[in-house]
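May I ask you to comment on the folded chain given beneath this request?
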Amino acid sequence: MADKQHEGNTPIDMPVRTLGTGKAALEVSAIGLGCMGFTMSWPPFLPHDEAIAAIRAAYEMGERFFDTAEVYGPFANEELVGEALEPFRDDVVIATKFGFALHGDPDGGEGGEGEAPLDASGRVQQTDSRPATIRKAVEGSLRRLRTDHIDLYYQHRVDLRVPIEDVAGTMQELMDEGKILHWGLSEAAPATVRRAHMVTPVTAVQNEYSMWWRRPEEELIPTLEELGIGLVPFSPLGKAMLTGRFDAGSRFSDDDYRSKIPRFAPEHMAHNVAMAEYVESLASERGVAPAQIALGWLLAQKPWIAPIPGTKHVERMRQNMGGAAVTFTADELADIREHLDAIHIEGARYAPVQEALTNR
């Protein structure tokens, strides 16, 4: 196992990975940047100018894969990412997402942006992937991102009221028009992915996956491997659980999204910290950061996996990007898997209202 150390904003030798195959293939940096936390879920938020500088610092260090969504804010995150990346637009891959009720009723009148049903955490809880809504969404995203095309356009959550075949057909139309180059699904069941892929080849599926959440290994990852679709893990650091920042006594403020997640509840933290302690032990043995162990492990699972850890801090961006240089032998991977299998995580990964939005 090895790791590289870097200073300042000096460029990092970042490897690339290919999501999808054939015409759906998309080359991205092995580790991307999830930008949600700049405007949502993880306060305190940086002042605007500092946020712009942080995203641009990621680019200067070698980051080329940036993930956002219209619902992050809503809209504010896309605006931030669009402004930050405008000088480098042709040198980066921008992924964004549609699929929530943010656009009024595009089939029934004017309907303005911004009004949407929210859960107790202030998060949008109603999906809307009608073709007319998608078309309204893509125009808004293009405008906010200051671009004439979106590199990777995900359905953020599956809308059970709209056949996935209709969504896939709309994606093909948008590709034919040059408004999007590739498309994907987020938190979609394997059967849904198959149906969508038959209509318009899917480049990537975004799903939670980490040492802390390995359910995708049961059905999703085998399906993606069979179909030649890439995987983009969000929360690859277990919402910071795998970074060594928390212990059994850690508590979260009401405005921190983790305070609404059962596995971070006080009654579960005392047990679940065993996972963090194990990752810390691996990092200590090898002289690297826990986050680099967690990201290197993900990259070692399949050559078509490209995680998108989120952070607002430049020093953590650099540390995360360094995870691409961490390697494991086959024996080390087998030993790690044996230890992971022995650690039981208590508590659900989402509150019920959020879990209900996943296509399971």
Observations:
- The beta strands are 16-19, 26-29, 33-34, 65-67, 93-98, 152-155, 183-186, 204-208, 230-234.
